[in-house]
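Dear support,

I submitted the protein below through the web form. The confirmation email said the job was done, but the results page showed an empty box. After a refresh the structure appeared. I'm attaching both so you can tell me whether what I see now is the final result or a partial one.
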Amino acid sequence: MRILTTTLVFCTLVCAKVAFAQPCFGNFTVSTQALVNSLSTCTLITGDLLIIDNGTDPITDLSPLAGLTSIGRDLYIQNTSLTDLSPLSTLTNITRDIRIINNDLLANLGGLENLGMSSVRDLLIQENAILTNFDALASGNLTSVTRNVNIRNNALMTSLGGLINIESIGGNFSIFGLPALTTIGLPLLEYVGNSFTLQNNTTLSTLNFASLAIVGNNMAIINNDALLNLDGFPVLIIIGNSLTIQNNEALEDISALLFLASINGNLFIINNNALPSLDGLQNIDMISGDLTITNNDVLSNCEAICTVINNMSVGGVTTISSNSGLCANITIVDFVCVVLPIELTRFSATPGRDNILLTWETATELNNAGFEIQRSSNDGRDFAAIGWVTGAGTSQTAKTYSFMDRDVKPGINYAYRLMQLDFDGASSVSPVVTASLKGEKFVIGAQYPNPV
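What the results page shows now:
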């Protein structure tokens, strides 16, 4: 009899909710727990659901929303005392924005794992004091954000796993002020339409943007004190405006940027006190705005920027100062670039059916012992010597050289560079060129100088 009574009570409660379940039309802003409770019969909301606590009746419980399946516009969860989003586990669709802001007791976004939409407009997760992750978003089909991703000032956040399936971001991408975050992995992200910012992430040491080729506007990597290198950007080829690399105390290697051919705004390399060389920038042949390289304590090798210096291809003001050695100031850099031991006028890689032919030309040579040919088969991350061609010593007439690489396989994109050696042991590195075999076809990659 007791079992029957309990069953009848449960059925009465559940069946009552089902009987009154209905779509709720329009936008809903709920600022108290009582207003949350008033939505208990909604199975879908056609407009916005803005849960923004005003402090008079703290919002602590979303169980009245259990059964909600769709939100026609935006979901805001802001200024609440929520510890748990699990009542939203029936939610399968949010059409526009997801904004999770200033919820001091929320540790994760469990409850949003059943979202099935492939895109949202904005994803903003900001100022949540104990939020460690939003990995629940990776359980669905979310692959694109049509406008902005802003993950900002979440003091305990250790994972961005909720973004692991993202392939494109139409607007801005900003990861800012996450002091507990040590790694970022968005291996499928190919395109950011506007600005890309990594800033004030003090323990961030590892990046994986293995597919990112295009940033439509500015790119800024600032105040990431544990970041050692930029190897996480192996295929980045276009930055639509300025590139800023600033105040990264441990950064010692930017060579992964070797596929960048131009900067359509400013290039700022400032106060990176472990960076010894600008290797990685040698294929840049134009900077539309200012070139600023200052206050990098151990930076002593600036030869990578000699192409833009010698060609006077900086559209704005060039400022080089307070660095070290042969990169100490603009006067020294100008001198180094003028007296490079060879003047390389052309370097190309031409694939044949089962080989790749390297050819290059020099206009002049000074004390040139020869060229060590170096090759990489992993997108320019690691180079190894594969041959040697003797130079002309000192010459004021044009010289032509060639080298045939026969140890090549289809399907691999090979990168080549020349290590020029003087008789006194000094050396310099050429720009990188690329080519690959693909079955019966072949592909010509980057060449020097870049074809117009």
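Response: this is the final, complete result; the empty box was a page-load delay. Residues 1-19 have pLDDT under 50 and may be disordered.
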